[in-house]
Design a protein that fits this description.
Belongs to the DEAD box helicase family. The protein is of the alpha/beta class. The protein is built from 14 helices and 13 strands. Strand 10, helix 13 and strand 11 form a beta-alpha-beta unit. Bound molecules: adenosine monophosphate (AMP).
Length: 349
Amino acid sequence: MDGFTRLGLSSWLIEQCKQLGICKPTPVQENCIPQILEGRDCMGCAKTGSGKTAAFVLPILQKLSEDPFGIFCLVLTPTRELAYQIAEQFRVLGKPLGLKDCIIVGGMDMVAQALELSRKPHIVIATPGRLADHFRSSNTFNIKKIRFLVLDEADRLLEQGCTDFTQDLQVILEAVPVNRQTLLFSATLTDTLQELKTIAMNKPFFWESTSEVRTVEKLEQKYILVPEKVKEAYLVHLIQTFQDEHEDWSIIIFTNTCKNCQIINMMLREFSFPSVALHSMMKQKQRFAALAKFKSSVFKILVATDVAARGLDIPTVQVVINHNTPGLPKIYIHRVGRTARAGKDFCYC
Ligand code: AMP
């Protein structure tokens, strides 16, 4: 029996997967999809690039096809770019259903979003801040009947860091029904497990990837110790060497602040490197444009803050450079997860 058939997925979905080159379930899909189809809450902890998104998109689409209505599912995610990426997977996999989705993120027109929400899309993919703003300012839609609540990068949504989502999450959690199915996914769930259990209350099925270190095995990891004064010179040298040695190349450089991100990008542009910046102080249109230019290989270097660290599926990155040491191991895991995705044999410096 075909891998996905064994998991209980319908033939139309399996066919759709095949067209996208998704033929064999990954471990997170193998373990979580049957449990989700059975109606259980689920907490999935798997390394980044392991097919986590499809692990919740596929069973949700199957359930939606059995009883289609809007709003059927709400997906919350910490960054705007991730919201677009998740919506894309819903769109391509749910095409035969005539799926209507709606993306609610900051930096975009609120009136247009309110109009879209009032048209009852099947799936809403949102960042918590903007969705909570809609609840605070209008009552033209409600999510009282949703079947599924998904928290992607769930631990980040619950963290109290520089972007604190807790108040916005509270507004949203008060608006969702108690008898929903809750799905929580991330590469790093364990730190916030207790808080997560208050959201997925329905005896959640917990699945964790067994590999001890949650970075991809094929990733080559190097540490370069240099004096602070010559750090930028080394960076330029490193990029130059990589550029000379490889015909097809792309690099992401992670920085700790928006200011540093901007400065490094300007410096690299001075040296005529094809580089773009991505950070949260840029306008949303500029953020999308930067990401699109990088994804299409027009620009080979993306200088980014951790806004780009989680979940972004950029298939051709060969090198991730941490310009600063990430403060937490899990930030490192998310950052280096941008390379060697889906088993590609790329290295990390
Ligand atoms: P994710 O971990 O959700 O960011 O997925 C990483 C990439 O793997 C995406 O481009 C997916 O389309 C792809 N993918 C998801 N599931 C599979 C699968 N079963 N086989 C091959 N590729 C997959």
